Amino acid sequence: MLDRVVAVAVLALTSAAHVVHAGVITVDGAGGANFTEIQPAIDAAVNGDVIVVAAGDYSTLTSTVGPAGASIDAKGLTLIADPSGGLVKVTWLTIKDVAAGQRVVVRGVEVVGAPNALVNHGADVLNCAGAVVFEDCTMTGAPGFIFFHSVTPGRAGVKLSNVASATITRCALTGGIGVPGQPMFGYPPGDGGAGLELSGSSVAIHDSVMTGGVNWPVFSSQAGNAGPGVRLGAGQLVSSGCTLTGGSALLAGKGKGGAGLLLKSSASAAWLTDTATLGGASVSGAAQAIVVEAGIVSTLPGVARSLAVTSPARSRSRSTECRTTSSCSS
């Protein structure tokens, strides 16, 4: 069993020479680690800790904050899948109130939203003055849901609300499936969700794919519209080497395909380098690749550049060495 020991953590998107000393906490649903569930490990962590989670499906476990999810609240830490391989699966992730000077890094996590009225976006990031980083993640928003006379549309793969600085690298984000209306009960349709949705936030995305949710996967005369690849409210988007694709309305036989990029606010701006934007298909034809209701879009010349760094967690032998010596080289 790996004890909680002092290790060298090389945080994502920093220089290999920039190292910080942090504790390592291990999680394995099969046992043999510090914890068998993710949320108790997060609760036990302090600023700067690294949580290494063995690959597996944690979506059927029950945490202290609800079924199958994880919440990082007001602390900076790194949450990664074990570098030995495989994704860590949950059904939702919330990151909130990360203070200036703190950083949250999430790597190798798969979020597949469940059809539940209480489940929102695949990853919901709120009110963060500190930096939030997603790497090598796959995140899908919850599908639309009808609940007590109200219709919830498909949710975003990732929703950023009042986030000062977010970075998304080598990720695939997909909006949740929409839900058809039910006129006999007075329910309007719910549209597909956005792959990525911003409100009052700034984000840089690299080498990633953002896809809007379909409006409904089978024919329905009551289907709504598919979701955009990216929905940008007030805020800023910088995209390099990405593909932004609107959701398809083709299978439902009704409704509009989503835009690859949709700007909704006069306070929204997007800068695109080596980025493909594609409108979603529908019976009446493909949607526009970029729709600007308000705001500005600039396409910049150049070719996307990529950077990969080593995992922020070290092996057991490396951790032990760092614990028993006064200094550790990178």
In terms of topology, how is this protein built?
Layout: E1 5-9, E2 20-27, H1 38-44, E3 50-53, E4 56-57, E5 62-63, E6 66-67, E7 69-73, E8 78-81, E9 88-90, E10 92-96, E11 103-107, E12 109-112, E13 123-135, E14 138-140, E15 145-147, E16 150-152, E17 158-169, E18 172-174, E19 196-199, E20 201-206, E21 209-211, E22 230-232, E23 235-240, E24 243-245, E25 261-273, E26 276-278, E27 290-300, H2 316-324
Q: What this model shows, in words?
A:
The protein has 330 residues and is mainly β. It has a domain at 91-306. Helices cover 5% and strands 42% of the residues. The protein has 2 helices and 27 strands. The chain has helices at residues 38-44, 316-324; strands at residues 5-9, 20-27, 50-53, 56-57, 62-63, 66-67, 69-73, 78-81, 88-90, 92-96, 103-107, 109-112, 123-135, 138-140, 145-147, 150-152, 158-169, 172-174, 196-199, 201-206, 209-211, 230-232, 235-240, 243-245, 261-273, 276-278, 290-300. The chain has an 8-stranded parallel beta sheet with strand order 4-9-12-14-18-21-24-26, with no helix packed on it. The chain has a 6-stranded parallel β-barrel with strand order 17-19-22-25-23-20. The longest helix is centred in the last third of the chain and has 9 residues, at 316-324. The radius of gyration is 20 Å and the shape is globular. The two termini are 24 Å apart. Mean pLDDT is 84; it is low at 1-21 and 314-330.
